[in-house]
Specification:
This protein has five helices and no strands. It is elongated. The longest helix has 26 residues, at 5-30. The protein is mostly helical and 127 residues long.
């Protein structure tokens, strides 16, 4: 097997492309428009947990699983009963939190910390 300067150039271009992709992702996830969109969907999901119905429990399970998946398990079968607004909000949060975990899910919107505390307490009493 021989190695040529063309191979070096291809490898160098691959590294450059990966670096540029990483920079684009960083700019996207740190843009104010993305942050606002993420927070809007997260707020929708958090507020839906106040309903006291099975959808509220399903959403709480998903959010707490993002918070600590080893302790809080999410049963996805409850997603069949979610309305389109809550399902879309959760999918957006799940996709972007798992793609670029900027911080713990309960820290994005400090004004809803009491909701996360309530969800943890409710789920702990379910054990």
């Amino acid at each position: 097997m021989s190695w040529s300067t063309a191979d070096d150039a291809d490898l160098e271009q691959e590294y450059i492309d990966e670096y540029l992709d990483m920079q684009r992702r960083e700019l996207f996830y740190n843009s104010q428009s993305f942050i606002d969109e993420f927070n809007k969907h997260l707020e929708t999901a958090i507020l839906a947990t106040r309903g006291g119905n099975s959808a509220a429990g399903t959403i709480a399970d998903a959010l707490l699983s993002l918070y600590n998946g080893n302790h809080y398990k999410a049963n996805l079968s409850g997603w069949y009963n979610l309305d389109s607004t809550n399902r879309a909000a959760l999918l957006f949060v799940l996709e972007h939190q798992t793609a670029n975990n900027r911080k713990d899910i309960d820290l994005y919107l400090p004004q809803y910390q009491a909701d996360f505390d309530r969800m943890k307490k409710e789920r702990s009493s379910d054990d």
